Amino acid sequence: MAERVTKDTFEEKVLKSSLPVLIDFYSDSCVPCKKMSPVIGAIADEQTEKLNVYKVNTNFDSELAEKYSVMSVPTIVLFKDGEEIARKSGAEKKAVLEEWITQSLDK
């Protein structure tokens, strides 16, 4: 399961992480976000050794959404060494998201 991060924990958990980090920017009222939740949870559970996975609720942490120019949800952002390396908007199937993660990290 993906843990929720806030503006207070974002720097420590995401920007200072030794592993790459996938962030799911979501909203409680977003239907596609709800469909993505089990996909994000499965990736979090299956890739613990190579990737940290967190969620940011844009209803409560709009400052983070604004800082990272998240204009729609769901938006998935991949960070490596504290820097954004890739971004994907909209709901995706698990296999598509896993392939995107692999390709993004191999660049």
UniProtKB/TrEMBL annotation:
InterPro entries: Thioredoxin, Thioredoxin-like_sf, Thioredoxin_domain. It holds the Pfam family Thioredoxin. The keyword Hydrolase does not apply. The record marks 31-32 as: Contributes to redox potential value. It comes from the Bacteria. Disulfide bonds join 30-33. GO terms for cellular component: cytoplasm. The record marks 24 as: Deprotonates C-terminal active site Cys. Keywords: Disulfide bond, Electron transport, Redox-active center, Transport. The keyword Plastid does not apply. SUPFAM superfamilies: Thioredoxin-like (SSF52833). Residues 1-106 form the Thioredoxin domain. PROSITE patterns: THIOREDOXIN_2. One of its GO terms (molecular function) is protein-disulfide reductase activity. The active site is at residues 30, 33. Belongs to the thioredoxin family. This is Thioredoxin.
